[in-house]
Write a structure and sequence with these properties.
Blueprint lengths: L8 E5 L11 H15 L3 E5 L15 E3 L5 H11 L3 E3 L4 H13 L2 H4 L3 E2 L4 H8 L1 H10 L7 E4 L2 H7 L7 E5 L9 E3 L2 H14 L5 E5 L5 E9 L5 E9 L12 E3 L6 H18 L4 E9 L6 E7 L4 H10 L3 H9 L26 E7 L20 E7 L2 H11 L29 H10 L4 H8 L3 H15 L6 H6 L4 H8 L3 H10 L5 E4 L13 E5 L13 E5 L10 H16 L3 E6 L14 E4 L4 H11 L3 E3 L5 H12 L4 E2 L3 H8 L1 H11 L6 E4 L2 H11 L3 E5 L9 E3 L2 H15 L4 E5 L5 E9 L4 E9 L12 E3 L6 H17 L4 E10 L2 E8 L6 H8 L3 H9 L18 E7 L20 E7 L2 H11 L9 E5 L5 H13 L3 E5 H9 L5 E3 L9 H6 L5 E4 L7 H13 L3 E3 L2 H15 L8 H4 L2
Helix pairs in contact: 1-11, 5-6, 13-15, 17-18, 19-28, 24-25, 29-34, 30-34
Length: 1058
């Protein structure tokens, strides 16, 4: 069928900020959909609040709205743009929920808009677990025993015939939010309450426990004439009871019998038909009882999902692109397969390799978390590896994680005694404990009984152990075929990584490269997408033209996220524009950079010295770019350079110079640029000496880390001694950095580019939060709003001097602080920063793209860079935190980064921009009601004006006794309320009873910690905005004021910069 002719414009709803359960895979799928529909001649209108995405670059859609995804914003944009259709299936759960809101409020009918890619009935049937169960019953597909409850009474009736443990799943949530397992009635009552609160429709599904069952997924695509194909089957190595996003997964499924596979395939297609998914991709999840073979369907997602991105990268089949084309009327047999150029999209992909995905966790950022995995997703990223066998891909995946592992191998510093009973509990690295148990001669059946990991996988791990035990220089080839890294082999044979490498090369044991081609090599691939293995035939011929290799950022983690992938993709665009072929190396399946049609060649490989150098020796690129992928490429840059690799752009030595505190301190002295007093330490004694010289308070941190990992503010010797012991573990051989902490200073971030002769400053951003909060966790504003002309000029001059002195070629980020009108340099990073996408959007200049061009010789003076078109625009960047996933965690911000993503607020007024940003995080500012204020002693005086402003805006004020007394003494009418433990009803009761609309709570110290934690948990659980700094409260007041006068308007980037 030809594409539909009654549609001219399509609105795509994005996924919003990166959060646990909904990460950058939706930038990948959204970018594919925008490009596919634009290529077909449609006007594409995009709404997304995440500035760190490629999809929100102005050239991807025709009208790009960097605005919050709310009913109000979407309605205004629809009224303005008059789209003919809305595509809600490439923006995750956020987009589906937004589409349902529009439908329920009559917007589709009012503006005569079609919903494409999904229909309301199919969304309701799939998302409403009760409807889904009924549909499956009607076609005789078995589901788990259980029922739905909207109250505690209903919940108690359901479990009368179901034994414990019991699974509780809230309806209409993502990433398993609110999901839990109850093992007794007391837990059940608590978890039911939590689940009902997490569900936007206050409904939970209560089911028999499937813990220990095997879990599988099918990625299915269907068109409007009922052609349906299976893209990929995925097997969870971890059994049911662990969220699939937190499980190690393998594609294709390894332990299904053909009969089971066919049954699962048939049920998947029957499920899509019954639910009514007319077109597009869907993910269907199954469980199989390993004791009796009973198969049930768990759920399905009527949209492109996290697993869709994995399936796309695993097979090469562009699910999001095809889904977008199917949504406009094409059928599978009309669309070509872009990888082969010879087959049609109606062909089911066939793969002759094994793909393993391993999630990446950041539990060290949330010490209150137990680190035990369950039905609620907790991982912040993932890696994917490809090998000819499961053993090879598993070892490659483990060394891709960037957590100090060389393969499926316990760290030498972490070889503690094994407690076999603890192996029952799934954790981030349980598979390493499984391996340790097998090495300790525990039987496979014994380990299976405790973990329920299928024996087939345990046998594979045992085979890796056998190979390690029999390791010698005579079986190097076999070891490499099974995924052993040179460094693994070297440690076992008492040789260095380089010695093993030389031995391999001498014996011609070299990797071969294979193509991911969707057809198991039956047809030749036109878009080379490659992986390494050790065989005889090499399918890759090196690119002949001049070429540059870009090293990606690896797995997402807190401190290094989608922003760096954005920079890598922009680098590809810049180099292509400059006439270079591009080679991307990365191992993250969620990203745009690993899409098959971004770079001229994609190597899906671990970002280790060995794996990257192997590719370099094959391709022989003219240069390698390391400054765009965050810390990941920098970790191997110096080593690569020592082996003759041409690192272009800023050299590793210059990047190291900025990290080396002594050398950098000398540069600051030479340039006469102020910096806080500082020192370095490698022991407790040297740290105490530095503290005596510099004076408390101190900001202490390990060197060479991202995301403020291990960074703290310490106020006395005892705190410093405690810190140093911990920090030396993080920093290893590198010293601990100690700086004088500038309390009550204003902080600024500057992003610039330099070509060695000239410097172009993208902008100066001011942090809303005060000094002491990690820059990635602080809301920030551009242009800076509290900066004199003199201070601004100083910051610009210091930036130019430092960029030139460090021989920067490309990007540089500098953090400044201002106290008593003195500008101090806090930190310099001559590489990509996480603010590059944000500032590039605001000034409409792609800084990362230009930086890549500078690295190959272009000059700033020839680029006609101009930011005068900004039109008085103010932009606020606001972080998003995963505290709902870690309810026991302290919610107060610190020098260590905890945010997972960010949103932007664009407007002509600071208040409106802040209000938009707050709405983008999912916590809209209230315009009436009651504000609870509780502040520490140093904030007491500042809080008086805050309370007075809220009172003038018509809010009621409620505070704990001391604060309430202060407000009353200053003429502010205020009611008092009990702290937790003082009496009832207390502040937590008021929050839970919906009597509070906004919480302002600055940290009060250790004595009040319990009270603060309870307030924070309750506010997050009840979706009430909570502000933990005075400066944040001041910005919120501006935002509320603008909301009350109705001055919020929405504009596309194309309008703003036309």
């Amino acid at each position: 069928m030809p594409k539909t002719s009654d549609i001219n414009s399509i609105l795509i709803i994005g996924a919003g900020p990166i959060i646990i359960g909904q990460a950058c895979e939706f930038d990948y799928s959204g970018t594919q959909a925008c490009k596919a529909l634009k290529d077909e001649g449609y006007k594409v209108i995009l709404v997304n609040s995440n500035p760190a995405t490629i999809m929100t670059d102005s050239q991807i859609a025709d009208a790009t709205y960097l605005e919050p995804i709310t009913l109000d914003s979407l309605t205004q944009i629809i009224e303005k743009e008059s789209p003919d259709a809305i595509l809600p299936t490439v923006g995750g759960q956020t987009a589906l929920d937004a589409a349902m809101q529009l439908y329920e409020n009559g917007i589709f009918e009012k503006y005569n808009i079609k919903l494409i890619g999904a229909n309301i009935n199919s969304i309701q049937r799939a998302e409403n677990r009760e409807e889904f169960k009924k549909c499956m019953d009607e076609i005789n597909i078995e589901t788990a025993r259980g029922g739905f409850a909207k109250s505690m009474n209903e919940a108690e009736k359901i479990i009368e015939d179901i034994p414990f443990p019991i699974i509780i799943r809230p309806s209409f949530t993502m990433g398993g939010t609110g999901g839990s397992v109850a093992y007794n009635i007391e837990e059940f009552n608590k978890l039911v309450e939590k689940g009902l609160s997490a569900s936007p429709i206050s409904e939970i599904l209560i089911e028999e426990s499937l813990i220990g069952w095997k879990e599988f997924e099918m990625e299915v695509v269907r068109d409007n004439v009922d052609n349906a194909i299976i893209i990929c089957s995925i097997e969870n190595l971890d059994p049911m009871g662990i969220h699939t996003g937190d499980s190690i997964t393998v594609a294709p499924s390894q332990t299904l019998s053909d009969k089971e596979y066919q049954k699962m395939r048939n049920w998947s297609i029957a499920c899509l038909r019954k639910i009514g998914v007319d077109t597009g991709g869907s993910n269907v999840q199954f469980a199989i009882n390993p004791q009796n073979g009973r198969m049930i369907i768990i759920e399905m997602n009527p949209r492109v999902s996290r697993s869709s991105a994995l399936a796309s990268k695993a097979t090469g089949f562009p699910i999001a692109k095809i889904a977008a084309k199917l949504a406009i009327g094409y059928t599978l047999d009309e669309l070509p397969n872009d990888i082969t150029g010879q087959t049609l999209a109606a062909f089911e992909p066939s793969i002759d390799y094994v793909v393993t995905k391993i999630p990446r966790f950041d539990f060290e950022k949330f010490p209150a978390s137990k680190g035990v995995l369950g039905v609620q997703m907790q991982s912040v990223g993932e890696v994917m590896a490809i090998g000819r066998t499961f053993r090879e891909s598993l070892q490659k995946a483990f060394r891709s994680l960037e957590v100090g592992l060389d393969g499926l191998e316990v760290k030498e510093t972490d070889s503690r005694n094994l407690d076999l009973e603890k192996i029952r509990f799934a954790s981030a690295f349980r598979l390493l404990k499984v391996k340790q148990a097998l090495e300790n001669n525990h039987k496979i059946n014994e380990i299976y009984d405790k973990t329920k990991i299928d024996p087939w996988f345990l046998y594979q791990i045992n085979e890796i152990i056998n190979l390690k035990n029999n390791m010698s220089l005579n079986n190097l080839y076999e070891l490499k075929q099974n995924g052993f890294s040179d460094i693994q082999i070297g440690k076992k044979l008492n040789k260095t990584e380089i010695e093993i490498r030389k031995l391999r090369i001498k014996n011609k044991i070299l990797p071969t490269y294979k193509m991911v081609d969707t057809c198991a090599a039956e047809f030749e691939a036109e878009t080379p997408y490659c992986y390494s293995t050790y065989e005889t035939e090499n399918e890759i011929i090196p690119l002949k033209e001049k070429k540059i290799m870009i090293l990606g950022g690896g797995p997402n983690r807190i401190g290094q996220g989608i922003e760096f992938d954005y920079c890598c993709v922009q680098a590809v665009f810049g180099l292509k524009e400059s006439g270079y072929k591009t080679i991307m190396v990365n191992c993250n399946p969620e990203t745009v950079s690993t899409d098959f049609d971004i770079a001229d060649r994609l190597y899906f490989e671990p970002l280790t010295f060995e794996d990257v150098l192997n590719i370099i020796e094959l391709e022989k690129p003219d240069g390698v770019l390391v400054q765009f992928g965050g810390q990941t490429p920098l970790n191997i840059a110096t080593k690569l350079e020592k082996h003759g690799v041409n690192i272009i752009g800023t050299k590793p030595s210059a990047i190291d110079l900025a990290e080396n505190r002594k050398k950098f301190g000398n540069i600051l002295k030479e340039l006469k640029i102020p910096a806080p007093s500082w020192g370095t330490a490698t022991s407790v004694n040297t740290a105490l000496k530095v503290a005596k010289k510099v004076g408390y308070p101190l900001l202490v941190r390990p060197s060479y880390v991202l995301g403020g990992r291990g960074m703290e503010i310490v106020y006395d010797d005892d705190e410093l001694i405690r810190y140093v012991t911990k920090a030396t573990i993080i920093s290893g051989e590198h010293p601990i950095l100690i700086d004088k902490f500038l309390e009550d200073a204003y902080e600024f971030d500057v992003d610039a580019i330099c070509d060695g002769d000239d410097v172009f400053i993208g902008g100066i951003m001011q942090h809303i939060e005060e000094a002491g909060i990690h820059s990635g966790d602080s809301a920030c504003v551009i242009p800076a709003y509290q900066l004199t002309s003199h201070s601004r000029k100083l910051i610009e001059n210091y930036t130019k001097q430092l960029a030139l002195k460090l021989n920067t070629i490309g990007l540089i980020n500098i953090q400044f602080a201002m106290k008593n009108n003195i500008i101090y340099v806090i930190e310099v990073n001559p590489r990509a920063s996480r603010t590059i996408p944000f500032i590039s959007k605001v000034i409409n200049i792609p800084l990362a793209k230009i930086a890549a061009q500078l690295a190959v010789g272009k000059k700033i003076k020839n680029m006609n860079l101009n930011i005068s078109k900004q039109k008085g625009l103010i932009a606020v960047k606001k972080p998003v935190f995963p505290f709902n996933k870690f309810p026991q965690q302290n919610i107060f911000l610190s020098p260590e980064m905890k945010s997972t993503g960010e949103v932007i607020g664009f407007d002509s007024y600071l208040g409106s921009a802040y209000a938009k940003a707050e709405a983008g995080t999912g916590n809209s500012l209230p315009i009436s009601g009651t504000v609870f204020i509780s502040v520490n002693n140093s904030d007491k005086i500042k809080s008086i004006n805050i309370a007075r402003d809220f009172k003038e805006l018509g809010f009621n004020i409620i505070a704990t006794d001391g604060t309430a007394k202060l407000f009353s003494e200053n003429g502010i009418n205020c009611n008092s309320i009990f702290k937790v433990g003082e009496g009832r009803p207390d502040i937590v009761d008021a929050i839970k009873n919906k009597e509070i609309q906004l919480v302002i709570n600055t940290p009060l110290g250790a004595k009040s910690r319990f009270d603060e934690y309870e307030i924070g948990r309750s506010a997050i659980g009840n979706k009430i905005a909570i502000i933990t700094t005075i400066s944040g409260a001041q910005a919120a007041i501006r935002g509320i004021r603008n909301l009350k006068i109705g001055s919020i308007q929405y504009h596309s980037l194309q309008e703003i910069f036309s």
